[in-house]
Amino acid sequence: MRISDVQTHIVGTEWRNLTFVRVLTDEGLEGIGEVRMLNHTDALLGYFAEAVPNHILGHDPFEIESLVQKMFRNDYARAGEIAMSALATIEMACWDIKGKALGLPVYKLLGGAAHSRIKAYANGWYTVERTPEQFAAAARRVVEKGYRALKFDPFGAGFYELERAEKIRSLDLVEAVRAAVGPEVEILIEMHGRFNPITAIEIARELERFQPSWLEEPVPPENLAALKKAAEKINLPIATGERIHTRYDYRELLESQAADYLQPDISHFGGILETKKLAAWAENYYVLMAPHNVGGSVSTAAALHFAASTPNFKIQEHFNDFADEWVKAVAPGNPEVVDGYFALPDKPGLGVTFDPEVASAHPRQQVFFNLFTENWHRRQALRETH
């Protein structure tokens, strides 16, 4: 079996463009990968224009490791977000092909189930006015939907510091959500790398009374010494890693022991197997895995197979119950969240089937997503302006 073609399909919403990558073979089997590029979709397509004829066409999709090595090494460049995202979509699709050919779910090819079900948390649910009343009402809807954990960023457009009034407002939002969902539901606080260390430490101290399960990206990701400085004085678990794109770039983070949970995005990290390698390394430090996932059904499927087969998996992020519900119809087949958990996937391959007709009904949108503008959390009409 050989890869005979690679096709891209971009599905657009008001706040994100999802790139679906179909890998076709000369025996009629095909696989699907997916990535949400944050404002870099054209760069991804440009990479494919050169990589597909030079690295991918003619390769045996069963030989995943050699394909990954060829794509990673042969460009003779330091791999970053673009290359690792392209690689991830091809890698996912190859696992999909392999699972379909063998009649097995991908996780069974990765060592089998390490868990009987997969814990989930909701994101994208707080597209409401930034008031305690509306955040509380939205949080209650998450619990009614069947989730037992939810994540949110209460900090508006904050960067480095917060004015005192804005800090109080942010804490009021967290207090309202905690009161709305009760003590048994997990809340996860997203900071999006907004703060300098001293501000992150100060805010973390105020958040302790709400017992969040983690603080995510308390400082910008470029300076791991700053994260270590913050982590040493923060008495809450730290999660980070969605903007780290290779195993090699995780070395300093693991050795500094500045994080309790790692959040690689499988679709930006070279795929499922590369993320499994990171998980095995992290287990030596007793660090758990909680993959970032802001994509559609295919990215979610890849994350579920990773989670099912990974002993030190903690919890899986999921957007699509609260944003762009039709996105599920582009590649249906994933289990739904019930009582806070996904069931294990049970279909061959990734278990989802790409529908090009649904995809074509939602063409690419000209959006530019910016987390540092007012009301970014509404995720509405974030059109690019010049």
UniProtKB/TrEMBL annotation:
Keyword flag Lyase: yes
Keyword terms: Lyase
Pfam families linked: MR_MLE_C, MR_MLE_N
Record GO terms (molecular function): lyase activity
Domain Mandelate racemase/muconate lactonizing enzyme C-terminal, residue spans: 132-237
UniProt-listed PANTHER family: D-GALACTONATE DEHYDRATASE, D-GALACTONATE DEHYDRATASE-RELATED
Protein name in UniProt: Dehydratase
Native species: Tengunoibacter tsumagoiensis
Organism lineage string: Bacteria, Bacillati, Chloroflexota, Ktedonobacteria, Ktedonobacterales
